[in-house]
Amino acid sequence: MPDPSGPAPDATPTAWRIALPHTTAAVPIARALVRTALADIDAPADSDTAELLTAELVANAVEHTAGEAPIELVVELLATGCQVEVHDGSPLPPGDLSSPQAAAVPDPWQEHGRGLLLIRTLSSACGHRPTAHGKAVWFTLRGRPG
């Protein structure tokens, strides 16, 4: 009989923390990791949206932070969906994730500038916070409708 105070022998992890290279190669790796994490346990969150928003966070971390220190991806499964964080070494905020009115409207002719808009629009919550070594930028997705 399993120890009731410890994890069940077949317990599925509810959080993953993975170091990624500080290169553009981290983007498809992060997408695959999120897709796998959510599929392996049939998570309630939409994996396509989670992949897209994760790719935006990782691409921003690679593009807007200096140095070669790894970027950290944290995926946490929640009873109501999932939360994804990307940690990088820059203490500078990523822009305004909380207020669509405060953000500039992206230029439709430019390739860049829509990442934070996508994150604000498609997530149920998002933001950033300082960490001991820089910052974490995060989003939360609610579960799929039943």
Q: Could you characterize what this model shows?
A:
This protein has 146 residues and is an alpha+beta fold. Helix content is 28%, strand content 26%. It is built from three helices and five strands; from the N terminus they run βααββαββ. Strand 4 and strand 5 form a beta hairpin. Helix 1 runs antiparallel to helix 2 and helix 2 (47-64) packs antiparallel against helix 3. The radius of gyration is 16 Å and the shape is globular. The model is unreliable at 1-9 (pLDDT under 50).
SS class: alpha+beta
Q: Give me the oligomer status.
A: single chain
Return Rg in Å.
16 Å
Q: Can you summarize the main beta sheet?
A: 5 strands, antiparallel
Q: Compute the average pLDDT.
A: 82
Order of strands across the widest beta sheet? 1-2-3-5-4
Tell me the layout of helices and strands:
Blueprint: E1 15-20, H1 26-40, H2 47-64, E2 71-78, E3 81-88, H3 115-122, E4 125-131, E5 134-142
Antiparallel strand pairs: 1-2, 2-3, 3-5, 4-5
Helix pairs in contact: 1-2, 2-3
Please describe the structure with a list of short key phrases separated by commas or semicolons.
26% strand, alpha+beta, disordered N terminus
TL;DR?
This protein is an alpha+beta fold and 146 residues long. It contains 3 helices and 5 strands. The longest helix is centred in the middle third of the chain and has 18 residues.
